[in-house]
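INFO  loader      accepted 1 record
INFO  loader      residues=110
INFO  predictor   begin
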Amino acid sequence: MALKEESYKDKKVITIGTVSEITGLSERQIRYYEERKLIFPERTQKGTRKYSFNDIEQLMEIVEKMEEGVQTYEIRKEMLRKEKQLNEKTVREQMIRGQLNAQFGIQKPR
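INFO  predictor   done
INFO  writer      dumping tokens
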């Protein structure tokens, strides 16, 4: 089975200045959302933040929620809930796949 290729939307290649231009947020606002653990840029060896297109979409969702009066801790809580649901779904799918493989004698290729 081939490794799942990373989507261009997941690649962390965009600098904070460019994210600021695209979103209209100040660099300080973007750093604040990182401090609140709402976005997770990668860092280069020199400490430069790098963002993905998915990070930009996440930032825009955060801004919309903030404009609706939702607090950052509530946004984080919702993100954690969604992440937990996704993890539970993945575990269930893996268990079912394992049961089916065992039932039908399918072995993983080496």
